[in-house]
Amino acid sequence: MAAAVTSSRPYHVIIFGASGFSGQFVVEEVARYAAGSPGGGGAGGSAPLKWAVAGRSRQRLEDVLKRAAERLSMPELRTDIEIIVADVSIEESLDLMCQQGLVILNCVGPYRFYGEPVVKACIANGAHYIDISGEPQFLERMQLEYHTEALDKGVYVIGSCGFDSIPADLGILYMQKQFKGTLTAVESFLKFTCGPEGSSGHDATWQSAVYSFADSRSLRQLRRKFGHKPLPVVGAKVKQRSFLFFSKEIDQYTIPFMGSDHSVVKRTQRFLYEEDQQSPVRYSPYVGVGGLFSVVKIFCGGLVFWLMVKFSLGRKLLTSFPSFFSFGLFTKSGPTMKQIEDTCCSMTFYGEGYSEGSDPAQGQPNAKICTQVTGADGYVITASAMVQAAVTLLNELHSLPRRGGVYTPGAAFYKTSLIERLNNHSLKFSVKANISHSK
Ligand SMILES: NC(=O)c1ccc[n+]([C@@H]2O[C@H](COP(=O)([O-])OP(=O)(O)OC[C@H]3O[C@@H](n4cnc5c(N)ncnc54)[C@H](OP(=O)(O)O)[C@@H]3O)[C@@H](O)[C@H]2O)c1
């Protein structure tokens, strides 16, 4: 590790919320990385990754280390890894945790309820912060309220470093790098492929979605507070898709993807435009929902969800019975290991723009590109992306913007080797076609 730990700050990373469903995969990923890092039990060298787990229950943290030790055949995890007891509702415990680590990997969500005290404690105590939030209200509010303070303190606060929204945000940066000319518009199509037992998500993500939808009006108010000027529209008008359509690209019925990808990508594109005068890309994310039967299920479920989410009793019912109201898409126990092992996903990007030497203000786009980001199940991608983001921060701190602040992954890491690091781990970035017609 390039960043050095000290006797008073002894850990490179601390996984907060290690006992959670996502936290357990982050623990395994960090353990795997540390074992392979220089001096960490794998290749020789001098600076092994030092890490600890944190959470509110010592017993549950011991259990997670025990499970990870068994799964990875590393008995030493149970005895060697430090446990830090910290609770979001006890400020001093967060301060103590943040004083001991260079980077806090925050897996405690829903972030709208639990995230802010951790961000605050990190900034106050000089620890960098990385999370896997997919909640635009939380992510954008942290930027609005804490960017200046984080910048002043030299602390990086980097949200959405999981499945939401590393593939989309870095996928577009990758496409911009591969495209010869000015890329102006991109559509992405997310497709899941699961095994015979299907796939599902964990309850906490369902809860995050319920409260995000219920509170979508506050996002509009929040965005007005930034006082941003609209981003310039570069290139010809993009044809609008209908809400539901059959996508030839992924051979499925498709709807707009309602996670944080659009919000995160737009923030990154704004940052790159303001910081580096890069031409902003218009982005439309879609997700495949399958065949006609799935479409009917999603529309019935979506209608019930949309009606219920507006009332507190409706929200109580939705969050109490996730499996029933999501037709089994989200469950209190989360996906089984077999489901996780059998699931993979791909995000295919279709971009258009103007080849080198052509003026985007004149005529129609004359160049197209297709790229893809592929990986395993969302939880595997999330853990790996979060850990690689932390490793990049620790090793390439001087390539991050300014001296600190609140950033999207794309804004924080656009000058680093994060895409290459991910390519060696959980996500494969590739070009499928790059076609330029004329100048
Ligand atoms: N971006 C993505 O792609 C992505 C992917 C996966 C998850 N996520 C998000 O990550 C978050 C966590 O998801 P999950 O499925 O792992 O949830 P989870 O299983 O419910 O885990 C939540 C964790 O938070 C801890 N926690 C709760 N209240 C706490 C408190 N007051 N103080 C300290 N720790 C507390 C829990 O500790 P105990 O064990 O003690 O209860 C547990 O470790 C959610 O917001 C989810 O939406 C995002």
UniProtKB/TrEMBL annotation:
<dbReference type="GO" id="GO:0009247">
    <property type="term" value="P:glycolipid biosynthetic process"/>
</dbReference>
<dbReference type="InterPro" id="IPR036291">
    <property type="entry name" value="NAD(P)-bd_dom_sf"/>
</dbReference>
<dbReference type="GO" id="GO:0005886">
    <property type="term" value="C:plasma membrane"/>
</dbReference>
<dbReference type="InterPro" id="IPR005097">
    <property type="entry name" value="Sacchrp_dh_NADP-bd"/>
</dbReference>
<dbReference type="InterPro" id="IPR051276">
    <property type="entry name" value="Saccharopine_DH-like_oxidrdct"/>
</dbReference>
<dbReference type="GO" id="GO:0005739">
    <property type="term" value="C:mitochondrion"/>
</dbReference>
<protein>
    <recommendedName>
        <fullName>Saccharopine dehydrogenase-like oxidoreductase</fullName>
    </recommendedName>
</protein>
<keyword id="KW-0812">Transmembrane</keyword>
<comment type="similarity">
    <text>Belongs to the saccharopine dehydrogenase family.</text>
</comment>
<dbReference type="GO" id="GO:0005811">
    <property type="term" value="C:lipid droplet"/>
</dbReference>
<feature type="domain" description="Saccharopine dehydrogenase NADP binding">
    <location>
        <begin position="13"/>
        <end position="158"/>
    </location>
</feature>
<keyword id="KW-0472">Membrane</keyword>
<dbReference type="Pfam" id="PF03435">
    <property type="entry name" value="Sacchrp_dh_NADP"/>
</dbReference>
<keyword id="KW-1133">Transmembrane helix</keyword>
<feature type="transmembrane region" description="Helical">
    <location>
        <begin position="286"/>
        <end position="309"/>
    </location>
</feature>
